[in-house]
From TrEMBL:
One of its GO terms (biological process) is malonyl-CoA biosynthetic process. The keyword Lipid metabolism applies. GO terms for molecular function: acetyl-CoA carboxylase activity; transferase activity. Coiled coil: none annotated. This is Putative acetyl-CoA carboxylase subunit beta. Keywords: Lipid biosynthesis, Lipid metabolism, Transferase. It comes from the Bacteria. The keyword NAD does not apply. Residues 30-220 form the CoA carboxyltransferase N-terminal domain. Gene3D superfamilies: 2-enoyl-CoA Hydratase, Chain A, domain 1. It comes from Peptoniphilus lacrimalis 315-B.
Length: 220
């Protein structure tokens, strides 16, 4: 008897979830499914709630939104003159890159901004999940390396928000050049009492290995 009622409750929950999904689709809105409560929520509602579900579940926040949330209004996004290249002629890489660019409006999987947090000057870079899962590539590494240089030259603390799918397979071994260079740069400047605050997902092992080891303060 208990099994019958449990199955009935599950069926009713599925029906309600389906109705909710149908209503959102009918309004022509983008939808996301919460990984915690499995309920559907519109992108518009997520943005209003800082990408937090009503159940308390967190969604990945777009890089520009992350910077906008944490920094004072006067911040400046630093743009870089970078060009796409398919060094190993990986099939369809150029098409996938173009799709990522159109979808996010970004040139790479990282956004760098200079400004203030509560009137304290700082430099912030955030990874973008919708751009190849925030994976590391040659140009990604160049931007991170430039962020370290700017922070050092201006004596600014660097804050990073990392979420990553690891290495970008479309660039093969070339991603390792970027990886090694910015890690080496981190290690050198830490000897000069450079401050780096690193925030990332604890289950992203690649991020922990690359962003947390060369740091002064870390939060996962």
């Amino acid at each position: 008897m208990t099994s019958f009622w449990n199955n009935r409750k599950k069926l009713l929950a599925d029906i309600r979830s389906g109705r909710n999904l149908a209503k959102i689709k009918a309004r022509g809105k983008k939808i996301r499914k919460c990984p915690i409560c499995n309920k559907y929520i519109s992108e518009e509602e997520l943005e209003k709630n800082s990408y937090i579900c009503k159940c308390g579940g967190y969604f990945p926040m777009p890089a520009l939104k992350r910077i906008d949330e944490i920094m004072d209004a006067s911040y400046e996004v630093i743009d870089f003159d970078i060009s796409f290249s398919n060094k190993i002629n990986y099939p369809n890489y150029d098409r996938k890159y173009l799709n990522a660019h159109i979808r996010t409006g970004l040139k790479e999987a990282v956004v760098l901004a200079k400004g203030e947090i509560l009137s304290y000057p700082c430099l912030v870079f955030a990874m973008e999940k919708e751009f190849f899962m925030g994976s590391m590539a040659l140009n990604t590494g160049k931007i991170i390396r430039k962020a370290i240089e700017i922070a050092q030259e201006n004596s600014l603390p660097l804050i990073s928000f990392a979420l990553s799918g690891g290495a970008r397979m479309q660039e093969g071994i070339f991603f390792s050049y970027a990886d090694g260079k910015y890690c080496q740069r981190f290690i050198k400047i830490f000897a000069k009492k450079f401050i780096h605050f690193s925030f990332n997902k604890s289950h992203n092992g690649w991020c922990n290995g690359k962003f947390c080891k060369p740091r002064r303060y870390n939060h996962c």
